[in-house]
């Protein structure tokens, strides 16, 4: 069966489309995610808009569609919550909760002209107290048969499935694997735009996309008591994606550069103040005229090193993704490799990958997934905060600041791995039920990974059971 999910704007893979009723033909065709299918749709506009003109009444050119997921999870760990993104105010903690996967989204499209459309999409999640959040709001203009431009807010195109990460019906599993998507889900939109070029070469559809813009969101630090959010700002986003869709497989490569990724909060201000005090004390000590010149110079260098620790989570990341989605008769295989170079010593560099295999029998698709993210850069060390051996009070302050910074570095380690098994049941058009078991773990009890953890050490394995009902309408 083949589900042509006409949903959610797919910034990386195609144009915005309203959700439609889904037909399920028989034979060798398969469940294919929206992210892959929309690459194959080379038409400049949906079929319903072929005759859209400015002469039609307003309501004849307005189309409302949507998606929803009702999800329940059971988490067996009383010291680690599970989150899909660091924008999630309420983690899925020990016991049963609806916070991890539940979401409802509405999309409105107005097409006043055949090649011109305005799209708005908003979602609400129980994990964020059902506050409406704008995911898309843009103008799309088609130029000829191959080029299109979108200006406004588009969904994030950073990874293979990041633009459909909230649309449960659009992918085979309950959710994209947390070790791969747990950080990029935090910025789920870009205020800016993109340029798309699409062309068919025989049975191969090519989509080339360049995107740019900025974003901002509330980033929750779960280790603070009470939990507090920082203002995250992402400026200077620029990237490209290239997709190639053949009859049985879609490949996608993307690379994204971010000029400045900054975090500001009261807790970070306090850390900066402590570092400033330590740097100032070293500078004052270096000014003592009785100190030997080499020692004074070493103290000034140490103070300069401490100044470099301010705003430790600020970075200039580069994201790289290579993924595929393939079908062979009743089998479906998805895979993705990603690399994050944060260009920040405390955040580090990470390599991640995931592989998912599913097999469809009738209306049921059992599947298995393995995903892993590993830090590839050395562990962070705040060597400039080492004791001087000259002033006990100063050395005590340096030790305190060093402990705080190294603790922050431990909480910034995203190393996580997961193994999942589940089944999807497409019991009627546009609706499915899924049941999934995940075993999610980190390298050790001092590495929180993508968990919401209040203190270290912690029990670093979560057994998660999820049941979801997905619908598009």
Provide a brief overview of the structure.
The chain has 473 residues and is mainly beta.
What report would you give on this structure?
This protein is mostly beta strands and 473 residues long. The protein contains 5 helices and 19 strands. α3 (266-286) runs antiparallel to α4 (293-307) and α3 (266-286) runs antiparallel to α5 (392-411). Mean pLDDT is 88; it is low at 1-14 and 19-53.
Note the beta-strand portion.
35-45%
- Write down the oligomeric state: single chain
| Termini separation | 19 Å
Helix % is 10-25%
Which key terms come to mind for this protein?
single chain; 473 residues; mainly beta; 16-stranded antiparallel β-barrel; 44% strand; globular; disordered N terminus
Topology:
Layout (H helix, E strand, L loop, with lengths): L33 H7 L21 E14 L5 E2 L12 E3 L5 E11 L2 E9 L8 E11 L3 E9 L22 H4 L7 E13 L2 E18 L6 E18 L3 E16 L1 H21 L6 H15 L10 E11 L2 E11 L7 E11 L4 E12 L16 H20 L4 E13 L2 E11 L9 E2 L8 E12 L1
Antiparallel strand pairs: 1-3, 1-4, 1-19, 2-18, 4-5, 5-6, 6-7, 7-8, 8-9, 9-10, 10-11, 11-12, 12-13, 13-14, 14-15, 15-16, 16-17, 17-19
């Amino acid at each position: 069966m083949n589900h042509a999910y006409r949903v959610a704007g797919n910034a990386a893979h195609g144009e915005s489309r309203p959700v439609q009723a889904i037909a399920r033909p028989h034979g060798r065709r398969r469940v294919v995610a929206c992210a892959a299918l929309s690459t194959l749709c080379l038409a400049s506009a949906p079929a319903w808009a072929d005759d859209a003109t400015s002469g039609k009444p307003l309501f004849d050119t307005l189309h409302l569609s949507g998606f929803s997921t009702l999800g329940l999870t059971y988490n067996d760990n009383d010291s680690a919550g599970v989150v899909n993104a660091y924008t999630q105010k309420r983690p899925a903690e020990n016991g049963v909760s609806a916070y991890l996967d539940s979401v409802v989204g509405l999309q409105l499209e107005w097409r006043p002209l055949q090649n011109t459309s305005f799209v708005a999409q908003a979602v609400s999640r129980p994990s964020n107290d059902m506050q409406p959040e704008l995911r898309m709001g843009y103008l799309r203009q088609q130029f000829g048969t191959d080029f299109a431009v979108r200006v406004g807010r588009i969904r994030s195109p950073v990874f293979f499935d990041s633009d459909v990460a909230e649309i449960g019906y659009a992918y085979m599993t309950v959710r994209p694997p947390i070790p791969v998507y747990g950080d990029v889900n935090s910025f789920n939109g870009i205020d800016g735009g993109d340029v798309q070029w699409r062309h068919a070469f025989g049975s191969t559809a090519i989509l080339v996309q360049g995107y740019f813009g900025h974003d901002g969101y509330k980033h929750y630090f779960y280790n603070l008591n009470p939990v507090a959010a920082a203002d995250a700002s992402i400026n200077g986003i620029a990237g490209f994606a290239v997709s190639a869709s053949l009859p049985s497989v879609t490949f996608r490569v993307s690379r994204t550069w971010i000029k400045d990724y900054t975090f500001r909060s009261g807790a970070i201000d306090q850390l900066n103040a402590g570092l400033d005090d330590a740097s100032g004390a070293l500078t004052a000590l270096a000014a003592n005229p009785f100190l030997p010149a080499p020692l004074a110079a070493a103290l000034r260098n140490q103070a300069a090193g401490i100044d470099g620790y301010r705003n430790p989570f600020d970075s200039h990341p580069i994201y790289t993704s290579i993924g595929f989605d393939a079908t062979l008769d009743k089998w479906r295989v998805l895979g993705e490799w990603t690399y994050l170079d944060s260009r920040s010593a405390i955040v580090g560099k990470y390599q991640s990958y995931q592989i998912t295999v599913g097999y469809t029998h009738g209306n049921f698709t059992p599947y298995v997934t393995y995903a892993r993210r590993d830090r590839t850069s050395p562990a962070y060390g705040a060597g400039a905060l080492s004791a001087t051996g000259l002033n006990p009070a100063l050395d005590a302050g340096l030790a305190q600041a060093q402990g705080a910074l190294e603790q922050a570095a431990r909480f910034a380690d995203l190393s996580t791995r997961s193994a999942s098994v589940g089944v999807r049941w497409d019991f009627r058009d546009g609706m499915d039920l899924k049941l999934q078991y995940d075993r999610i773990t980190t390298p050790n009890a001092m590495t929180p990974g993508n968990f919401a953890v209040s203190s270290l050490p912690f029990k670093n394995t979560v057994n998660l059971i999820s049941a979801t009902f997905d619908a598009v309408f």
